[in-house]
Model the fold of this input.
Amino acid sequence: MPIEIPDVVIDRLPIYARALNLLQRSGREVVSSQELGAQLGVTPAQIRKDLSYFGRFGKQGRGYSVPRLLEELRQILGLDRDWLMVLIGVGQLGRAILAYGGFAPQGFRIVGAFDADPGLVGQEINDLVIKPASELKLSLTQRPADIGIVATPAAHAQAVIDDLVGCGVKAILNYAPIAAHVPPDVHIKDIDPVLSLQSMTFYLKGQLAVAGVK
Amino acid sequence: MPIEIPDVVIDRLPIYARALNLLQRSGREVVSSQELGAQLGVTPAQIRKDLSYFGRFGKQGRGYSVPRLLEELRQILGLDRDWLMVLIGVGQLGRAILAYGGFAPQGFRIVGAFDADPGLVGQEINDLVIKPASELKLSLTQRPADIGIVATPAAHAQAVIDDLVGCGVKAILNYAPIAAHVPPDVHIKDIDPVLSLQSMTFYLKGQLAVAGVK
DNA sequence: GTATGTGAACCACTTCACAGCA
DNA sequence: TGCTGTGAAGTGGTTCACATAC
Done:
């Protein structure tokens, strides 16, 4: 009886895991949903309900064991192994992604980099030789990857995503500013700081009006 | 009678605007909620309801005028003006943000860059001289900014955010991997690709299990 | 006494479905 | 006839509140 777990719940688990990591490093042994919630800006009930989808990890009257709960979450999310990623698009943005030091310590390894620009192909960055985008599909069949990172210009992004999907890649991190189409069994997350800014300006505009600054 | 507009609605408006931009560039004059929805993976009713919070922009039997609706959205979101931003943290990530070409064309201008590392202070990047982080507050009082971009290490991020809030900054784009605390009138959006990856692996793990690969 | 786990109540957003207008 | 705008119905996620366990 696998009850359907809401996507929003899954999106929160990594946030819990991150906080527990911090707590663990600071030597905390136990934490209550109350305290964790206060730290994260989430209600305690939210946390308890979220966790209850997966099991009963707490002890009444005490709270949750920090190392125990962290380990459970890591297992639930699949963070107890490495994941292989390929990057497509090695322009300014792509190079920043390659250089980004935040992936590897979390078990996310970029094992291939592709670009359509012949001027970039052959260059070596971080021990990775950039391959031609035309070889993406062949390369993926020989050496599969779990996740694709798309950092191409918007105009090429959908085609690249289609290629990834065609090769059986089921998770895509998309930095291109497009609303991509993928089949229902493929997961895609968009990273677009411009969209974030453009929604915040709505509220800024409102506050100016209230302040009478117009 | 200012009916409360859900945040999720505001988050979708920039996506609509982006699609309309594309349509306009391709010369389209009119678009229906049906077609726009198909392009964005959203139901037509969703789009119509979202827009209805702000007015009646369509024509029955025809659809929406692309230039007209785009202009309305730009006004609603406050995209019809420039917004000034300051960047705090000019490490690898911060430099990538400075170099990123996607902000300026959308009216988002970085007008100040700060870092705590004396080795970086004084360096010039993209016509911006990096200033010491200790001068952030003073600098903001002399030359206010609308938005703060935080790209410091996690350990310093909350303090920087407190400084920004203290200077009256009401919108923050946070690249640091922390759950920051801000007062209710301050808007914050987090950009953390690792969190996105860590939630996708949950589904990847599930698919492996189903496929029997373990 | 204290904090979890959870059905039930609540709330918010989404979708429906149709009246109304071009 | 075609598509918008929108109350009403539906759905899904959040919060409540309390029985339960330490």
